[in-house]
Amino acid sequence: MDSMSNTKGGNAGSSTNDNTGHDSLSSPGRTIDSSTGHLSHSSIESSDSSGASIGDKTSKARTYDEDSVVRGGFYADPSTNESLDTGLKTATAWSSNFWLKPEPVVPDTPERIPTGYTISEPGSIVEGSGRTYNGYREGKYLLPNDGAEQDRLDFQHEIFRIAFDGALTLAPIGEPSRVLDIATGTGIWAFEFAESYPNSQVVGTDLSLIQPPRNIPNCTFVREDSEELWVHGFKFDYIHMRQVCTCFDNDMAVIQQAFNHLNEGGWMEIQDGYLELNSIDGTTEGTSLQRFIDLVHSGFRAMGRDLLKAKYYKKWLIQAGFVDICEKRLPVPINPWPQEPRFKNLGRYQNANFHQAVEAISLKTLPKAGLSQVEARDLMAQADRDHNNQAIHGYCSIYVVYGRKPCAWEISSQKLPSALNQ
Ligand SMILES: C[S@@+](CC[C@H](N)C(=O)[O-])C[C@H]1O[C@@H](n2cnc3c(N)ncnc32)[C@H](O)[C@@H]1O
Fold it and tell me: CATH second-level architecture of 125-413?
């Protein structure tokens, strides 16, 4: 068991042995097979009209079998044929079965216990694929917000912790009083930060309120579109955002607003994946994985999102007025091909993460890039196989960029070098 996985908060699952001989780690509603790394959701839980439901058997949530089919925004309970209004809005009807999962590759998946929480947010939208998307500011965010994506985000969090040698932040933040985590997702970073800094008050914001009730008193969540006017009644000492390259129409405006909402001397830090496939020996050239990534970029671009925007963060921080800016780019192998144990481990996590992400990042992008559903499905399967192939020595990267809001007296001093000269 990975030590960091063990220290995770949330509900610890139980370990069982199924008749395949694989150890499987289970938690309420979800199971991960530690040999295949495949997550299975044993149930979908929907709430009554009072609010979000939680994959916690102690909650008031009602449980339905996952075989229940999502139709017209309703989960149909197969035992009674009863349709239940979950508060989910519907987009297109599901008429075909083209968006099957890619043929299973079996990544060497590190063991990790999922938190066991699935927050199914009323007002979310079930699309034709069966995946669920944010209903608040509908259409603004292009990835799902459902249980499978929530698990993936929590899993992906481990990649950052490994890449940062266990740290949550690389900026020299000291002991910040007030902390903001923009686009917090499941809130996993915010929760862990709040636990590590008990004297900090941490606020996480997101379009989707998919953060489980963890009873960590110095951590709260607010629904907010970060591209609109922020309504917090105080300023922050540290503002963090991670994995946001798919989020904003105008990143510079978000960074500027962060600058305005920081106390003097406060830090902003952006941590983001960089989906550019490199290799040490040319083995990625001509692969289906490379083609897949190119088409995903092209699909995102067609919808106004540049997945390679992290290379501009430093420039944008300078333009916003930050100083002491630091930019780092860390390699993340696509699978465990490297010999070094640390990178081998990072590659194991990244391989499993890609396997879980491939559908979510394809659903809207590959059709935009001109692929038919059948072509898309085939390419997804081939890309997944390439990603798992240790003869392909590829790597992507993580960008980390941080900067400090200068004090007023620093800006007025003519002796200091201009931030723009950095
Ligand atoms: C890839 S997830 C990253 C979540 C989290 N930061 C992490 O690293 O685990 C991106 C998150 O950004 C949120 N998001 C997208 N657009 C947003 C916006 N305009 N304002 C606030 N949150 C947004 C999404 O709902 C989603 O939860």
Answer: 3-Layer(aba) Sandwich (3.40)
